[in-house]
Fold each of these.
Amino acid sequence: MRYFLFLILVVGSPIVTAIEWEEQRIFKGANGGETLRVISSTDSSVFAPIIDSFLSAHPYLNIEYRVASSTGIYNEYRQSPDQYDLVISSAMDLQLKLVNDGYAFALDDVDHPEWAQWRQSLFGFTLEPASIVVNKSAFGNLPVPQSRQEMIEVLRANPDVFRGKIGTYDVRQSGLGYLFATQDARASDNYWRLMEIFGNLETRLYCCSGAMIEDLAQGRIAIAFNVLGSYAAARSDLAEKIEIVLPSDFPNIMMRTALIAKSTRRVRSAGLFLRYLVSSRWNDDAGQANTLPSLHLPSIKDKRSIIALEPGLMIFLDRLKRQSFIKEWENAVIH
Amino acid sequence: MTSSTANISGSLRRTLAITLLCAVTVLTVLLYFVIRNYAAQIAQQSQDSILQASVTSMLDATKLREGVVEMDIPYVSFSMLNTATDDRVFYTVHQDDKVLSGYDDLQVPQMATDANIVFRSINYKDIPVRQATASRMLVGDGLRTQITASIAQTQDNLSVTLQRISRNAAVFGAGFFLLAALLSAWVVSSTIRPLKKLASSVTRRGPQDLSPVAMPVPTEMGSLVSSLNNFMSRLEKSLTQSEDFIAEAAHRVRTPIATVRSHAEITLQRVEKEENRQALKAMIRATDEASRAAGQLLDHAMVTFRAEQLEFQEFDLVALVEEIVLRLTPIAEMRYVELCLQGDATVMVSGDPILIQNAVRNLIDNALKYSPHESVATITVRSNPAPYVEVQDQGAGYPVQEMKQLTGRFSRGKNSHGTVGSGLGLTIAREVALAHNGELTIANTPQGGACATFSF
Ligand SMILES: Nc1ncnc2c1ncn2[C@@H]1O[C@H](COP(=O)(O)OP(=O)(O)OP(=O)(O)O)[C@@H](O)[C@H]1O
Ligand SMILES: [Mg+2]
């Protein structure tokens, strides 16, 4: 379910930088006038139900929805901040840095829990756990691992079954992958042990969740590690073939966050859309099946496993820190 | 006694209250700013110490490996900077003069060699931030390099804290002000109290009470009260002296006059020459006048004196009047005037019998003096509505035009021509009545006679 609709060259600064949009769609309201320019790291197929239900409530708006990787969005928005009205991304660290560096417009009157917002500028509106997704048939009668530790054990015991059959994010390309990897590494040393094993088993690296899940569905890989469970769950057609596991040792839960561009001239409309996102109303309107899990996910009881919106997130964006993390990661995963 | 107003300028109570309130206000404002500044300093210090911990942890994470600087900033370096208001964080790391990582436009202050950390408040990206900078020398493989780390944080949380502190300080200040104001009100009233007590004790005195003030007073009022006592004792002395003097003088005048009169009368019997007899008669008359005047002056002085220290006692007014009538009957018979006493059997009153006797005697005396022969003077004593003595004669009555002045001192009417008198009779009667909280009214009856009423 991936489209390459457009390839657009954006000329924003003297340095000509190309951003490769994965998708670009225009959602038209019934009497759409003003157009909101939204850039996002979420596939339009996943986001479309939300936008549709928003537009049916606000038919005088259009939404131009462009999709790129979270890193791509981050760089593009920093380069031409006045080209967009709303930025939605799964990379919480990059989003937080945008706010920290003054790129976001603060909405003072949004009623949102303290832990799900930062500076009234960055608002988390989904809760999406990093999951281990497995292809049931590939596992045969092997036990499906319920935690990282169990996965280590299963992989160590059956190296030949899983050689070349493990998929995870390429943290160098995927902002979300990097976020999950750094949070994992922060939480436990097990991460590096796991990466060693991944490296030995010739792990496949992916830029994005969609591709990883597609390969998993096709049986090209047996395990997708740290992939967004929400993406997998959204694929109801795969429900039979795959199993989504929330690691029981320590789940990492990401919030998809949205911010309004500092220089937007459509403050009111952008505010409407953002309020709609944080209201979680779309969850009822659009139906549970094909969309993202809203903030009020009942299954998540422990708020501590939600990645906190705090300045600490920026640590791993530090040039030196990133360099050394990537180096260590490459040493482990790539041979 | 005339009631006089004082020359008033300003109020002790107000001056005291205003002064105290001013002092309290100044103190409150001072207190407010002291508390606020102190608390602000502490709040700033706590932000500084977190910044210091953060920058130190960053420096600790730097090391030289094979001549290359590596820095593995721990997560806590930044997560410890998390605040309730989500303050923004900027940082930069320099190796010698070159930016190694972080925000390259964040200026770093010049580090003094001995300082291990420098704090300053600057503007970065047009917003006020607090910046902590520290540096560290790395030595290895023949390389010496200086690493400088700097963290800047916005001060939203600090200003929220400051606002809260200001609010609390304001509440505290208001409380302090209220308490101090209440206290000063209490101080004012307790300071003024002895003055008020003195004033009311002096006011409550009878008009004649000139005894010294005996109640205890604070030192500051000592001289005032002692001057007051001094003044009153002098006043009392001079009053008694003058009363005594008048009494003494009247007495001294009367005796020689009586001698002169008796000599003149004896001489009159012996002298036959008509013009000499005339002269002697005039002389006798003059001595009568003088004697009467002296007697009335003496009575008046006595009345004034006794009225000052009035001693009340219960007695029967009718009995008193009866006695006077009895005493005056010989004189009345000489004038062919009948004295007729009527009214209640007994009328109990409280007062000074000597004074009342004097007053009633003067009224009957007038009735005898100013009514014709062969007439009746009626004296009525009753207890209703209030006890009174009324003396009514059948003469020509008071001269109508002079009615108002007749009770004044030394005032005599036109009809008094040819009668011996001093013009003090009605005055005495009136003063006695006033001393007893009563009054003397004079009027003419429809038949033309005079009617004087002494009522309690
Ligand atoms: N019963 C009366 N009938 C008419 N006139 C009177 C009568 N009593 C008083 N007067 C008038 O009032 C005046 C004042 O009276 P008052 O008794 O004060 O003085 P006085 O009789 O003249 O002198 P004294 O001091 O000797 O009594 C008298 O001079 C007289 O003119
Ligand atoms: Mg008289």
Note: The domain at 129-252+315-333 of chain A is CATH 3.40.190.10 (D-Maltodextrin-Binding Protein; domain 2).
Amino acid sequence: MSAPQPQGGPVARVLGLLGRSRELTLVALMLVMGALVTLGAPQFISVSNLNQVTAMAAIIAIAAVGEALTVMTKNIDLSVESTIGLVAFLVGVILREHDLPVPAAWLVGVGVGLLLGIANGAVITIFRIPSIVVTLGTLSIFRGVVFILAGGKEVNLVDLPPGYADLATDSVLGVPVFVIVAVVIVAAVGLLLWKTKFGRQIYAVGSNEEAAAIMGIRSRTVTFTVFAMCGALGGVAGVMWGIYFGTIYATSASGLVLQIVAAVVVGGVTISGGAGTVVGAALGALFLALINNALLVLQLPQELLQAIYGAVILVAVSADALLSQRQRRLAAREARR
Amino acid sequence: MTTARLQLTGISKRFAATAALADVSLELLAGEIHALVGENGAGKSTLVKVIAGVHQPDAGEIRLDGELITVPNPAAARERGIAVVHQEPRLFPDLSVAENIFLIAPPTDRFHTISWGEMRRRAAELFEQLDVRIDVAAPVRGLSMADQQLIEIAKALAIEARVLILDEPTASLSSHEVERLFTIVRRTSERGVAVLFVSHRLDEVFELCDRATVFRDGRYVTTAPTSELTTASLVRFMVGREVSLFPKEATTVGAPILEVRNLSDASGFRDVSFTVRAGEILGLAGLVGAGRTEIARVLFGIEPRTAGEVLLDGRPVEFRSPSEALRAGVAYVPEDRHQDGLVLDFSITNNITLPILGRLFPRLFLRARTEVEVATQFSERLRVRMTGVDQAVKALSGGNQQKVVIAKWLAARPRVLILDEPTRGVDIGAKVEVHRIVSELAASGLAIIMISSDLPEVLAMSDRILVLHEGRISEEIPRADATEERVMFAATGQRVQAPAGTGASSVH
Ligand SMILES: Nc1ncnc2c1ncn2[C@@H]1O[C@H](COP(=O)(O)OP(=O)(O)OP(=O)(O)O)[C@@H](O)[C@H]1O
Ligand SMILES: [Mg+2]
């Protein structure tokens, strides 16, 4: 059955189209919001501001892609913010204290992220403990390792190679490097989900683990792999976090997991598993970063920021829910003719 | 003339592009048992859900004892005394059996708090009526389909009903439970309750029901007293053409493929031995809870065994997971399609290709076109009633979902196929089709183990019947000697008192 075309005037038609995909809703919302904010604060649209926003959005988006994979299998990884913090700090320490080339330090960082993910995945699948419990534990453990590593000191920008932090805003043909990295990762993981056996198995395990097992899918292997990937992507995000901030504290990236999970959910990945896309999760990250930034450039009272931020998320998600219900009703009415 | 207890007039219901019900009418009299029959997807469950307040009709009216009513939700149906057993059990797995039964209206004590003792006592009473042994304090998780269905029945019986609606209540029950259920249903209708009974087992329709209404493709076809109908005429009304029953092909039985020696598991069965050969269909009969499904689950690597050995092609095997079993060529069609058989959120295509993605696409990427081709081929072969292979399986009728489960395993081309209640809830036309395909598969050299509570099906399809009683094999009956009586005797643990060698004709 092909979905019938939305009926009615142009407005209704656009709304109908939006209701069909969370990705399109987000893009439309971002365009509308961008236009409105630019009216109130023209500096919002400046290249330097947008570079700032997209660099941060890219980091969150990469972590959100990994998180989305775990959520699709009906799991969650709460420890990813500690992975980011640990990797960012570790790479800083390596560059400060060892004579390793910069790319090698990065590779170590991603490798450590992968190992942390493997540790999560192993505990979850071998002992069959719910991921929310395991990663709640490793959230603290990984953070504890950062504190031990830090020994009360932070990594400063001056300890790092000259020009290191500029990478965050460098661009190739006008496109920021961070954005390129994020797009490549989203495309690769998106392709994996859409076009490979493993991708299909992720959705199957998230929808109905028992049935998936009876169809010969090794659901524990799938879950394990997803956590390993989430760790590695957390490692990538951690390396980028270090570049972006230059100065890294033992508490860096604390509380970030809320934003990452919010990006995943706003991006349309259902928390009950089995559905969603990584493009959605990445757009969710961009959307949240834009809201954050818009609230800053509009110079709204500080004490309101947090509440407005939460309200905007709720509005966005409910608008999407309303649009898709409307879309279903239209489809049903159309079919009745 | 008295007014009907429940009168439905001109009911229509659409789901997007599907007209599930188009202007149907039905009249239930107080004290009658009324059958509703029709092919898979004919709209029977949709009508049941309209009466139960699960779905709202797009058009039409419902009258209860002459009074025009609306049923906005299931609670409203309950309050009006409409008790419903739905086709797919929907129980809360972590709550106890008793809690599931009295979830909405638990018995209370004088402080208006839940009286747990009273609740368990009343639940136990209900199961006693049904002559079923079940621990009412145990959680529902892990219970068989039959037990789950019995719990749904007990739930409906717990209501002081004016109308009792049973949507395929017998689909996973064996004859013994069915008999008990019928006794209770008859007793209920004698009290003046109007009963609507949906079933694909036509012998039950004739045994139990006073009148029958037939639907086809969402439309009303006819209503007639069962005394004026025959199986053939009923099938003609349902299908719109003649259907001949059970075409079992004669096969040449080859070498042993699967040998089971002294197999036991933790609780379900003990010391079970049998052999299945290439080209052979081995029927597993027995009462509900006799251990048939447990054997299948051990053979397929879902549950561990505690003793004994299994040989595949003469070599000992021990599967630790279904994926190992599948790779060795053993496939299993589970009885509970919602829990084990299907990924409900997936499309028909994605369900059918899920177990064979590795074979279809040995390289990295999937090709949508290939998947659609395979899915189309197998779903058309089984005549799945659908809007297209991209339809989500959760939008299919129960019987059509079952066809998708079977299509999936046909596409997987196994060497040993274990079928657990393969035609549960499948309509007569499709049942014949499933039997034909199973029979063809056997003829092509597969070894098939078929678990079924449908006795005529076991008798018609099996080359050999293994009857289980309380976890042990009580008798092995070759096809030529098999009769319903002999299987029933063995299933209840009685031995046939007949000299060896005489056929089942001596059992009377
Ligand atoms: N929730 C739903 N959404 C979309 N279509 C549905 C839904 N429920 C039922 N249908 C469609 O309505 C039609 C009638 O389905 P219904 O479940 O009433 O059949 P049935 O007669 O009970 O069949 P069965 O014997 O297989 O149980 C089918 O074509 C089915 O695909
Ligand atoms: Mg039905």
Note: The first strand of chain A starts at residue 171 and ends at 172.
